[in-house]
Model the fold of this input.
Amino acid sequence: MNSIEEIVKEAESSSFFDVVLKKNSELTGKTPDDTVEFFKKIWFTMKDSLRRALSPEFKSSAILVKGDGKRFLGSEGLFLSPVVKKAVGYAMVIGEANASMCRIVAFPTAGASGTVPGVLIAYQEEFGERDERMIEGLVVASGVGAVIGNRATLSGAEGGCQAECGAAAAMAAAALVHLNNGSPSMIQHAVAIALKNIMGLVCDPVAGLVEVPCIKRNAMAASLAFLSSELALSGIKSVIPADEVIDAMGNVGRKLPEELRETALGGVAATPTGRRIAKKLTRMRNKFLKNSKSD
Amino acid sequence: MNIFDVAGPITLGPSSSHTAGIIRIGNIFRKLIKGNLRRVDITFYGSLAETFFGHRSHLAIMGGILGFKESDERVKNSFKYAKDKGLIFNFDVDREFNPPHPVSLKIEGESDLERLEVLGVSPGGGVAEIRKLWGFPVVIRSGTNTVLVLHRDTPGLLSKIAGRVFAFGINIGTAHLTRLKRGGDAILVLELDDPIDERLVRVIERIEGVTRVRTVESV
Done:
């Protein structure tokens, strides 16, 4: 699972999905059936997270962001197509559930956990795809994620937000191409386009919370997945191959100063408002430490 | 990295290193201390001392100590469960101490049977490690079947323990032996390829020179 190009080459006689399954079997010793079973659980947990976060009983315990996803889903459609609008809303709803300490699937990370389920659940609802096919999409997405993790990184602390929400966008884009019966090479172009478009994005969580700008970044990544897959499905190619884009992303990530890698010391975290929020959180923490003693 | 590493874990938000990994540290601690837990004192180190509150790592560690898993939403109310059980707890931060990793914490616990202090690390991706146990530097990793044997440093003891494990048909994946001084207390950390049989624990306990055996199981 070290090269998108290698998967695409092998997929000429089968499919991207089959090659990822096969390679993963060689790597882990798990049978394709076991793997599909594993992803079934992932898929239904994603749907369950969203269902519970959308229910009226859901209580947000996020500190900075409350109810944006639901509000957006209830708003009138304007520029986005129904599926994109829904995906963006769902991505934010799951992002907020994650911030509220609810059960989610880290995919590839908790911070970026809204993007892929947001895109895929919205897709299933709007296009009526079977669960079996959606699970195939998740396997394809994870194959892409594994290559990104192996060649670059999937950690915001190592590579910035491009490695989390950017990777999630590329993974979701790959799944969308697969679900639309795009060719393996189209998957490669969708991945390359998504990552090129988010190259260099920093990880700058305000007060260190996984809320601002993370939740809206999941919304952005969801929309980027549709853009990249539709470009690729129309036959547009990325001049730079996906593997090289991934390598570039890894290099850019390593060059990012520490302030812009999840330390909450740069980017929007370092703005006057960001600092004010961080100070407020420190006061809350100190109050907790004073009061938390039960003896 | 394979596709199982990318998909998941299924966990509580908001951050796998500050919630899932921390819950698992608590789970391991609960496995290591015998008896009914009466009191815990938790100290956050490094960057965790700053970030624990926003990431709810305090709820996570308490939930883990109570035995809740990383996908169990009861963790959100773990303080209430702890109080209902009559568990006394205190939280503190220590910025002076230089931890082995930015996301580190200490748990000091007291049950009706014993006291236990461990140093836990959450290096990322929901993995947990115990780095200090019974005063020894160790590495106990979540997701493994690990046997910990406290014993007196005597010739032949390692071979006896390994022999018992072999008799149960279990392969030893990794082994780490450390002693404080020659002839003094020593600790053996064995990672096994298969789940640990409770009978194996009792067999090892009966070996002369062995003072304490604890296990951590793969979850």
